[in-house]
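ARCHIVE CARD
CATEGORY: sequence design from structure
SOURCE FIELD: tokenized fold
FIELD CONTENT:
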């Protein structure tokens, strides 16, 4: 297959899950209510990804910059994350989901960081879907971290290729996203995967994340299937 022909199903879908706060505010509810409803959408989209035969699903759940939010919201989000992990892990495992976490997990404290590690180890052999959770993730920090690790590994300047460098990013071994979806009508990247989305197709949807369902996911996949990917090459 020529690289300029788009594949009907993206191998890797990345999602900026945005709009939880606005969903709650529109209902006169506290923001945490929107985050809780957002967690339900996560469940739906994991299922939809499996149903559609997507191999990798990356979810932006908490950015490096989200630490700047009021302490109360950060505490609520951390609590929700812990709760989600504990209540969903067994089911994810049974469904054949392999969990992988990217971002500075240590910032959530040693307990949660360790729980995340245990969850990754438990699900490491699963092959149905790789679920990449971006937690305290920043695209720039990822790139700087990769540069540091490459230097620490003693990579010589002349040995540093794009391929070698990618191997030092937090996403090493994961194919680049084919499709990036952002919900809530915002049309920006907000320091998500910067290196990795070089040639991703982008779909922006006005749907707020807590309202996002299998149908919306399917529509984004349909939109993707219509795109002609060129990767800079001459159109066929
Ligand atoms: C996305 O929803 C979830 C996180 C960033 C943690 P927001 O909390 O950003 O919701 P809005 O953008 O304020 O509506
Ligand atoms: C991006 O959303 C981060 C996540 C979805 C986790 P934000 O709501 O934090 O981004 P901005 O502030 O609108 O750019
Ligand atoms: Mg937001």
């Amino acid at each position: 297959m020529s690289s300029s022909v788009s594949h009907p199903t993206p191998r890797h879908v990345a999602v900026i899950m945005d709009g939880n706060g606005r969903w709650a505010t529109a209902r006169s509810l506290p923001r945490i209510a929107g985050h809780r409803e957002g967690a339900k959408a996560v469940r739906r989209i994991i299922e939809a990804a499996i149903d559609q035969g997507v191999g990798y699903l990356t979810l932006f759940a908490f950015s490096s910059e989200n630490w700047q939010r009021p302490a109360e919201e950060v505490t609520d989000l951390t609590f929700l994350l812990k709760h989600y992990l504990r209540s969903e892990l067994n089911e994810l495992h049974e469904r054949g989901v392999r969990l992988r976490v990217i971002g500075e997990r240590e910032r959530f404290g040693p307990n949660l960081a360790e729980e995340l590690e245990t969850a990754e180890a438990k699900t490491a052999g699963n092959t149905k879907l790789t679920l990449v959770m971006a937690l305290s993730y920043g695209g720039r920090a990822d790139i700087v971290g990769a540069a540091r690790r490459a230097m620490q590994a003693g990579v010589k300047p002349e040995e540093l290729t794009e391929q070698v460098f990618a191997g030092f990013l937090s996403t090493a071994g994961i194919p680049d996203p084919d499709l990036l979806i952002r919900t809530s009508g915002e049309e920006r990247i907000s320091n998500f995967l910067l290196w990795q989305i070089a040639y991703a197709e982008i779909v922006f949807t006005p749907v707020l994340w807590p309202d996002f369902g299998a149908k919306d996911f399917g529509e984004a996949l349909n939109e993707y299937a219509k795109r002609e990917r060129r990767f800079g090459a001459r159109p066929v």
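CARD ANNOTATION: The two ends are 12 Å apart (CA to CA). The chain has a mean pLDDT of 96.
SHELF: design records, drawer C
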